[in-house]
Amino acid sequence: MNESHVLVVDDDARLLRLLQRFLSENGFRITTAMDAEAARKILAVTQPDAMVADITMPGEDGLSLTRSLREKGQVFPIILLTARGEPADRIIGLESGADDYLGKPFEPRELLLRLQAHLRRHVPRPSSAPRLLRLGKLEFDTGRNLLSGPEGIVHLTSGEAALLGVLTRTPGEIMSREVIAEALGMDEIGERAVDVQVTRLRRRIEPDQKEPRFLQTVRGKGYVLKPGS
Q1: pLDDT digits over 62-101, tens only?
Q2: Within a 10 A sphere around the Cβ of 212, how many other Cβ atoms?
């Protein structure tokens, strides 16, 4: 993760300077933008390894920017910042496609740790003995958190890859929302956040999201991953 490039988008110039200095001192290469329009101009010429964006900004907000990037196929980790810290607001952030949510004010150290965690999940890890799980026409390499199919690699966000990685630890066994939330570091947001991530992952792996074959809901208990052809 050395020299990972992070785009930080916030209309607070003081916070931008603070984060640029702090994250740079911790080995990141930082580009800053004060609104979504400026961020889009940067994204048109370069792709960062991760993005940190404020939700409340003049003009286009961070939710809209995040949703737009996901619709265009951008899968790098996105962490949203906001002064609104209610769980319902965090769910909205996850539904827009964000991987994480940090309420203001926050300790820069916490942002650093979250960035490092998401980048670890996002970057495929080498494995001398990969274990492949088949999900229809797709294969998931559990050693590298890599999903591929007939047309090549299926790009997952760090949150989607992390969820699939957690579920493949015990394929065929029911895993409660509480256990999944703890494994994904979503304890503070709650079980609803798990449901959001499940919905997003199903879009990647299920031929028919209305009748899921591989990632099934067990009413009142949680979810179960059922690999197969």
Answers
A1: 999 999 999 888 889 999 998 766 667 678 888 888 999 8
A2: 17
**DSSP E strands, 94-183:** 100-103, 132-135, 138-141, 146-149, 152-154
Distance (Å, whole) CA 216 – CA 211: 9
Cβ-based neighbour number of residue 174 at 10 Å:
14
3-state secondary structure of 126: coil
Closest CA to 46 of 64, 35, 31, 60: 31
- For residue 149, give every residue at least 6 positions away whose Cβ sits within 8 Å of its Cβ, in sequence order, or none: 137, 138, 139
Q: What is the mean pLDDT of residues 37-48?
A: 88
What is the pLDDT of the chain when averaged over all its residues? 87
